[in-house]
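Exercise: predict the fold of this chain.
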Amino acid sequence: MSGVGSGYDLSVTTFSPEGRVFQVEYAGKATDNGVPCVGVCCKDGAILAVEKPEETKMMLPQSNRRIFTVSRHCGMAVPGKLPDGRQIVSRAHQEAEQYKRFYGETIPTKVLCDRLANFCHVFSLYWSLRPLGSAALTASFDDQGPHIYLSETNGVSYRYYGIAVGKGRQGIKTELERLKLGEMTTREALKVVCKCLMRQRDESSNKKYEIELAWISEETGREFQRVPEDLAKQTVEDAKKEIEQEDSDSDMEA
């Protein structure tokens, strides 16, 4: 490890001569190498999707959740190291509860995400701590419409129309940039997001995959909810069939 950073990665408080903090970069790589997470903002809501490999055949379905509810109007997906992600979710619960108790209203998404980014940044300020190996992908719906935010481990937070984090993120981002998300409903976008995740799978792997879906929209009464199990299964099956059909059509053309 020290060979990569030439000794400048032994402490999180040490800058390299180029101005880099290697431990923060390592934490970012842990997020980038984690499970793929996607967040998209549609005309009537927002969607969070995570594709997870089956760790073991003995594990019960949906027991290794990556999407969490923060409050009625807000939910969060955590790529990267799951224990670190749970720490961020726990902090989000505290921030939402304290804001509600102090101000008497739900916390604005931008305020919540900025506070989470500050929380992550604190772990890069003291030599006795290490940066968190996870980020926070947040979806919400308020009076100004649906929102998708990404709070990164280096302490920054940005709002997006659509964003992907984790393995295969670059390919998924390219697919998302081709879409007119502002003209799509959440139901229409569900299948598109599933197709984006499936196309970036490692075909050489023999592992089974599970796609976790959650949304917040006018249809859900602006409450963050998991996509109903029957709808989620049907969406995944439809996406799989469309990919197979598109692949067969392209083979015939070739």
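Check your answer against the key: The CA atoms of residues 36 and 150 lie 14 Å apart.
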